[in-house]
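Worked Example 4.2. Read the sequence first, then its structure tokens.
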Amino acid sequence: MKTVQIMAMLNAFRTEQDGVTAIEYALIAALIFGVIVGSVGLVGDSLKVLYDDVAAKVTDAVS
């Protein structure tokens, strides 16, 4: 390849924005995933306590 062609390819690579956009979307998706996992973890603990309480009350009512 000629030096001019290599320089043109390097310049096109440097100004390309598609890869940057894909990385930004991946970071946003990872952030949303982290928030969902954290929320489910917090809600999951609360639900376990609630279900255990209900199960105990049902057991007491049956016996």
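Now turn to a second chain, presented in exactly the same format:
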Amino acid sequence: MNADLSLFHLIKEASFIVQLVMLILVVASVVSWTYIFSKTRELAKAADIADEFEEEFWSGVELSDLYKRLTDADFEPEGIEKIFLAGYREYSRMRQKAGIDPEVQVENAQRAMKIELNRELERLDEHLPFLATVGSISPYVGLFGTVWGIMNSFRSLGNVQQATLAQVAPGIAEALIATAMGLFAAIPAVIAYNRFASRLDRLIGRYELFIDEFVVLLQRQAHSQ
């Protein structure tokens, strides 16, 4: 490959604006991949915790025993476990008050679980807007760098009587690198965002289904006492 058209040389010789665009895209790509790896682990862990918890929950264990285990000082509850704790804690607190209607006990427990669900959704949704932003604007940022680079390339030919492809090619090539980098940053971010959004929807659906099932259990327990 001609040294003048090598990737490193083209980036090095690009204008300041084009180099700045490339730097922004590289940083965006690095941050995106960091979030992608961390969010992959986070969602996988949340799904595993939900699997283990639901298996134990429906095994016939006493709710009070499960509550004690999850509130142990050496244990840090996460995800669906926090939702269960919020509901059972509120239910137990309301039961200790005299004259509280069973329906009110259950409604308060359900409300507490919904609040915890929203907190969990907010936590799991963190960084997804960044991936969506990178996926949507990176191609345009790269295109801006390309347009700017091509403008400079043709502007430099203004005083040249006879332009040749050899004179134009390096400038256009360095400009097109910005577009390629924009796509390189955008494509993984879009794929990851769509994948994470789908997994998050399924996980939240599981949480909501658990809340509904737990509420039915609490209603039976409240009316049987």
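Notes for the reader: The chain has seven helices and no strands. The CA atoms of residues 88 and 197 lie 29 Å apart.
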